[in-house]
Amino acid sequence: MKKLSVLVFFYFICISNNLWAQKGDCNGYFAYKAGTKLEMTVYNKKDKPTTILKYEVLKNTSTADGADIVYNNESYDAKNRLINKSEFTAKCQGTQFQTEVRNLSSEMMPQSADIQVNITGDKLIYPHKLSAGQALPNANVDIKSTMQGMTISSVNTQITNRKVEGFETVETPAGKFECVKISYSYYSKLTLGKIEGTAVEYLAKGVGMVKSESFDKKGQKISTQLLTKLN
């Protein structure tokens, strides 16, 4: 189960080609307008739904060089039972968007109010202007789960070889989207082992992630995420 958990590890709330037309308007590959709601469905390697991820842009606050964007994040299991609820902030800054690497897998998010999950490390960076063949900055992230001050699990993940593969049209239950395709490699060191593989993600302007797929080191698909609702 942990293997699937880490491979579902990456949902980068993707909220452009151009600089914003006005302060607070990121105008990029990310949901940034207050009130925007998105729902992602996570499928396992047999295409069976396992997790529902719901996001809402709560607030977009203009800053001197862009905007701070606050998101609400809720995770549900396949029976629509709430697993976790939290808020986090991303930034439009200068010519790029910065966001935390969020662990949104049901097995690795807190299952109890007594369990705390702390995510530290690098921000993922998405320049507003992307082009085929462009290399993107790597990231290193640590996730630690604790209960009453005692560590019960930890994961360190290195995200490398991030590259813009090109642009494609992607169709999901939420509609048809023109997307940028980004690939990357991951290496995760767990409390009881390690895993590695590759992944691809498809991002649409003003929306964010529309689709992602994770593969093991042999190239076998492990999981898929699809945008299933957009309001």
Describe this structure in words.
The protein is mainly β and 231 residues long. The protein has one domain (2-230): YmcC-like fold (Beta Barrel), CATH 2.40.360.20. The chain is 3% helix and 61% strand. Strands 6-8-9-10-11-12-13-1-2-3-4-5-7 form a 13-stranded antiparallel beta sheet. Strand 2 and strand 3 form a beta hairpin. 35% of the residues are buried.
Radius of gyration: 17 Å
Count helical runs. 1
The ordered H/E elements are: HEEEEEEEEEEEEE
Percent of residues in beta strands?
A: over 45%
Q: What is the class in the CATH system?
A: Mainly Beta
Report the end-to-end length measured between terminal Cα atoms: 32 Å
Assign an overall shape.
globular
Our count of domains comes out at 1
CATH architecture: Beta Barrel
Largest sheet: 13 strands, antiparallel
How many strands appear in the DSSP assignment?
13
| Oligomeric composition of the shown chains | single chain
Estimated structural class: mainly beta
Instruction: Provide the helix percentage.
Output: under 10%
What is the fold named in CATH at topology level? YmcC-like fold
Provide the residue-averaged pLDDT.
82
Strand order of the largest sheet: 6-8-9-10-11-12-13-1-2-3-4-5-7
Main traits of this protein?
single chain; 231 residues; mainly beta; YmcC-like fold; 13-stranded antiparallel β-sheet; 1 helix; 13 strands; globular; disordered N terminus
